[in-house]
Amino acid sequence: MTKHNGQRVLRVGVLLSGEGTSLENLFEYIEARGLPARVVVVISSKREAGGLARARRRAVPTLTAARRELDVDTMNDRIHKALGEHGVELVALLGFLSPFQVRGRYEGRVINVHPSLIPAFSGPGMYGRHVHEAVLERGAKVTGVTVHFVDDEYDTGPILLQRALPVEAEDTAETLAARVQALERELLPEAIRLIAEGRVKISNGHTQIKPE
């Protein structure tokens, strides 16, 4: 970790594929709320991703490893090279819609935000609007957000944080998504803070959070 004003600062690499609203939220927590982290590189799997512009406005280095142009292994080669060059300590998948290969090097150092309470409504094909539509179709009464560590399968890594919210009778996929996203914006910085403070331990596929 680097230090700023005597405080240890976690070097974060962000992988995304879209507009980068979660990235913007992370920047705001760092700048205005004292989150002990620094985004040192932003990598996108799509050349047109709005998150790249958000990073450039803050002079954060960016890279595109376009999934449409590369096979999965080559894409990951480029990503891993950039992560290494920038000394990334934690990888945050913020709406990254391509497979990220942990490759052992980043085991226990990659987090993902999923818009449901894993293991419910998770796995291949369960992302974004698809999750909220599935929740409503099933008639679930509760949904929520999960921040979990990433392994080599979909949504199966150790769960770090979860928070629930009720599904309202009048909810649509859009209204439910809005409430879930608001919760995501709270939970992600909380997870990064816990990791930056060295309070998270993974043991036998489960996480333990040390008290302050």
Q: Would you kindly provide a written description of the structure presented here, covering whatever features stand out?
A:
The protein is of the alpha/beta class and 212 residues long. It has five helices and ten strands. The chain has helices spanning 21-32, 50-57, 72-85, 129-138, 173-196, and strands spanning 2-4, 7-16, 37-44, 62-64, 90-93, 110-114, 142-149, 159-166, 200-203, 206-209. The strands form two sheets. Strands 1, 2, 3, 4, 5, 6, 7 and 8 form an eight-stranded mixed β-sheet that branches. β3, α2 and β4 (62-64) form a beta-alpha-beta unit. The chain is globular, with a radius of gyration of 17 Å. The two termini are 19 Å apart.
Structural class: alpha/beta
Low-confidence runs of at least 5 consecutive residues: none
Helix content: 25-40%
Determine the N-to-C terminus distance. Answer: 19 Å
Would you report the number of β strands? 10
Count of DSSP helices?
5
How many structural domains are formed by the residues? 2
Order of helices and strands: EEHEHEHEEHEEHEE
Q: What is the arithmetic mean of pLDDT? A: 95
Provide the β-strand percentage band: 25-35%
Which CATH first-tier class of the largest domain would you pick? Answer: Alpha Beta
The CATH fourth-level homologous superfamily of the largest domain: Formyl transferase, N-terminal domain
The third-level CATH topology of the largest domain is: Rossmann fold
- Tell me, what's the shape? globular
Rg is: 17 Å
The largest pleated sheet is described as: 8 strands, mixed
Architecture of the largest domain, CATH level 2?
3-Layer(aba) Sandwich
